Amino acid sequence: LSCFKSSPNPVVEDFPLLTLMLSEMNLLIHEQLKRSNVLNYCNFQSTSNLRADTLSDCRELEAMLRVISGRTSSYSVALRSLSTKLTPDDAVDPAWASAMPYNKIPGPSVTMMLSGILFQGQTKDLSIMDMHRIMRDSYGDLVRVPGVLGRKDTLMSFSPDDYEKLFRTEGQWPNRRGMDTFVYYRNKVRPDVFKGMGGLVNEQGESWQRFRTIVNPVMMQPKTIRLYVDKLDAVAREFMEVIHNLRNEKNEMPGDFHHWLNRWALETIGVLALDTRFGCLEKELSNDSRDIIKYIREVFQLTWKLDVLPSIWKFYKTSTFNKLMALLDELTRIVMSKVDEAIIRMENNPTQSSDSQSVLEKLLKVDRHVAVVMAFDMLMAGVDTTTSATTSILYCLAKNPDKQAKLRDELRAILPKRDSPLTPQNMRNLPYLRACIKEGLRMYSPIAGNIRAAGKDLVLQGYQVPKGTDVALASIIMYHEDKHFPRGGEFLPERWLKGESSSDCPSAKQAHPFLFLPFGFGPRACIGLRMANLELEMIV
């Protein structure tokens, strides 16, 4: 540091080293504060364990960094994230000293988890919601699920206040536990394909940020998503013909209709991820398309057994683990062939205008490996979740014909004729459609919640939760509770509309803002948010 103090005019090239030094000193101060139980850095001079010159050095470093960032805006974000504003909230949770220790958090024992005693041996027959209810009824709003067979502990929180605290303190690089089996496959089994990239679900820290920084401007750009309206409209119209041919004399769908929704979802994801039509809505499904749908479903069934339920696969490669690796190999083979076909087609017929380029084309221009992994992950993540969400919404509308009629009236205003197309312009103002989608996702959420590692030492429900502890945001069981959503068991899209609140229809604004987050929150929110909403709006 003395070298930099002697330099009256630090240069841009010094920025990386200066930020590293500042980050290290920030950590040092945090550790000193924690050891000293100092809740306010302003009284550091009275604490023997905290040296005044450490804080002084940090202030000098910040001044140098501001000089540099004033010359180049690209460093301004980094400076803000590294600034050592040691407020009491940033340094130590004021409630930490008086909170109960982590090991006092209630929860089942390892024996109970391994034996299934907690669920009376009924884990195969219980839904996720049933398991969550048993946990909360048995232990309260914060439950410690002990780590077994090489896994860390996981806390389960049933409190929206906890969710807000976790999200607001997650820091620059939010940590969300990935699927260990996927990480193993990509790093150990097929590094030749994935090149050390775990993808957005499985990457953490700086590697996650690098990946996200590349894909964010493409995936989250509204004008990019609008390019797909015509193509998805064509897919949706084909699906209407499928429905017309499937329905019986009572105007009802057959019992295997969800298979056709799977086929529509894969066809749609093929357009979004690869700018390719798979032909999934034709009478005869191709072998590759059939296998993709089948394998994706089986993969998620197996990852539930290996990554969620207790498993010894990290110590002994079980038959279930080997089956998963074989399925991932088959999926990789099929998907990579589709990616290669799309890349060759785009290279032979490049889109001239950058404004008209697809997601895959734009990502290929930046980083070929990122483009490949992103396309693969979109196919993996987009089929089952989209199918489940669509099923939920259509089911709710079918069970509530009055709401369906109200939605139909809104849509007929922009689609006066049977063959009127959906366009980016006429889709701008469809509040009731979007309210129906939100309410369908609340009624039958395709996901059970979210998970985050604590970004700092926190106090949740009166207990100390150390930094890095995984906390599952088990929100799904609260979506139907009247204290959060009055008349929560009813399908009421009006609760999401402005100015519709009344005694007959309570507003969703009464619910905690961090309770219902179907696409997550913050920098680690779902990258496919805009695409998923477009898919759902168009098919409904």
Q: What can be said about this structure in brief?
A:
With 540 residues, the chain is mainly alpha-helical. Among the domains are: 2-91, no CATH class; 193-447 and 518-539, Cytochrome p450 (Orthogonal Bundle), CATH 1.10.630.
Describe the structure.
It is a single chain. The protein is mainly α and 540 residues long. Among the domains are: 2-91, no CATH class; 193-447 and 518-539, Cytochrome P450 (Cytochrome p450). Helix content is 53%, strand content 4%. It is built from 22 helices and 6 strands. It has a 4-stranded mixed beta sheet, sandwiched between helices. A two-stranded antiparallel ribbon has the order 4-5. This is Probable cytochrome P450 12b2, mitochondrial.
Major sheet, described briefly? 4 strands, mixed
CATH hierarchy, class of the domain at 193-447 and 518-539: Mainly Alpha
**Helix vs. strand class:** mainly alpha
Mean pLDDT across every amino acid position: 83
Enumerate the strands of the largest sheet in spatial order, edge to edge or round the barrel: 1-2-6-3
Query: Rg to the nearest angstrom?
Result: 26 Å
As residue ranges, the low-confidence spans are 37-50, 69-89
SSE order and pairing:
Blueprint: H1 2-5, H2 15-36, H3 52-69, H4 76-82, H5 88-91, H6 110-115, H7 128-139, E1 142-145, E2 154-157, H8 160-168, H9 180-189, H10 191-194, H11 199-202, H12 205-219, H13 222-226, H14 229-246, H15 257-274, H16 287-308, H17 319-348, H18 359-366, H19 368-399, H20 401-414, H21 431-443, E3 450-453, E4 458-460, E5 463-465, E6 470-473, H22 529-539
Parallel strand pairs: 2-6
Antiparallel strand pairs: 1-2, 3-6, 4-5
Helix pairs in contact: 2-3, 12-18, 14-15, 14-22, 15-19, 16-17, 17-19, 18-19, 19-21, 19-22
